[in-house]
Amino acid sequence: QVQLVESGGGLVQPGGSLNLSCAASGTGSVTISMAWYRQSPGKQRELIATITRGGNINYFANSVKGRFTISGDAAKGTVYLQMNSLKPEDSAVYYCNAVTLPGRRTYWGQGTQVTVSS
Question: For position 1, what pLDDT does the model report?
Fold first, then answer.
């Protein structure tokens, strides 16, 4: 069993920055990748970026490329999301995700609210 705890969300003005953190805890599994997703009201959960145990990084949300940066160490169960030049449309609940072995099980954090507003 793995528990994910996110932190770092909050209210920020347009153009501002936030840094989200996620830490995994638990035993008996090996984390093979971690990711950040976000979900706005009435919309599907959107994959932002992933980082693998080997350090490979991929970005999936075109709207954040060049503004958001994922980092961390999936092998150690830590992942971060540096968000710069925030826009009102970035407002959402941001979720941390981990995929583990055995069985490629998926775990989710409880989510952290990010609100971009003046």
Answer: 85
